[in-house]
Amino acid sequence: MLSAAWLALSDIWTPPFRAVLWKTLGLTLVLLIGVWFGLQALVVHFADWPSQPWINTSVAIVTGFGLVIGLGFLIAPVSALMAGLFSDDIAAVVETTHYPQDLPGRGLSFVDSVVSTLGFTATVILVNIVCLFLLLIPGVNLVAFFLGNGYLLGREFFESAASRFRPVAEARQLRRDNAVTVLFAGFVIAAFLAIPVLNLLTPLFATAFMTHVHKRVTGSRPAEISTG
User: Fold this and answer.
1) b vs e for 161-199, b when ≥16 Cβ sit within 10 Å of the residue's Cβ?
2) Domain annotation covers residue 114
3) Rounded CA separation 123/121 (Å)
4) Best CA proximity match to 23, nearest among 80, 108, 85
5) In angstroms, what CA-CA distances link 70 with 40, 66, 140, 170?
6) Average pLDDT for residues 16-35, to the nearest whole number?
7) Which of 163, 170, 203, 204 sits at a 20 to 30 Å CA gap from 29?
């Protein structure tokens, strides 16, 4: 599993990944910045004290810092959304680069991809809202973050990789049959997600990583070729 994580991390910086890297990073930053400004403006609007400007200033400052922390918990659902947009591109690069001996996978239809992405993103948002409320409980919040995101992200990214080669129902069954492996792989993704700045690359890393994990679960190994 560690070798799969290293391959995925190495892949991010290779030429075939760069186009997807910049699109993913750009859209992620735009979305997070947009949410930050939107929530900041909303709070300031409803907490307006015309006769006490110092209160408005204090609220704006405290809200700004609070939203920075809160946005850290939004990176997981944003990663889920970005993965839905670019997962096939990323997986295809990994498959053709490291597994040229295997038949290439096929992406989900547009409708199935949209439905799956929106449903999963909503679930991840709910889990991370719970984690956000647990911030006041030392230790518990960290455990909740890793358990919740480890399970959900591991499940989604593995099934996404597996669905390129079999029906969705069979992909889910394959995930259940390898539940322990997928769960620990999910914890690796959650650990990556917890690293500031680097976690903006979570969609690329997680998709590439789970593509390797899926290949190893099904018995395929990467070819002995240069990754550039």
Assistant:
1) bbbbbeeeeebbebbeebeebbbebbbbbbebbbeeeeb
2) yes
3) 5
4) 85
5) 12, 6, 17, 36
6) 75
7) 163
Looking at the 3D structure of the chain, how many domains does it have? 1
Percent of the chain exceeding pLDDT 90 equals 15
Asked if residue 226 belongs to a domain, the reply is no
pLDDT tens-place string over residues 72-101: 666 666 666 666 677 788 888 899 889 988
Residue found by looking up tokens 């704006």 in the block = 60
Residue 157's nearest CA partner among 118, 223, 199, 205 is 205
Which whole-number Å values give the CA distances from 224 to 98, 99, 101, 216, in the listed order? 8, 9, 11, 15
Is the pTM higher than 0.90? The answer reads no
d(CA 161, CA 174): 11
Domain encompassing residue 56: 2-217
**Helices within 47-139 (DSSP H only):** 53-98, 110-133
Q: What separation, in Å, do the N-terminal and C-terminal C-alpha atoms of the chain show?
A: 21
Reported for 69-73, long-range contacts at CB under 8 A and 24+ positions apart, including other chains, are: 69/135, 70/39, 70/132, 71/32, 71/35, 71/36, 72/196, 73/128, 73/129, 73/131, 73/132, 73/145
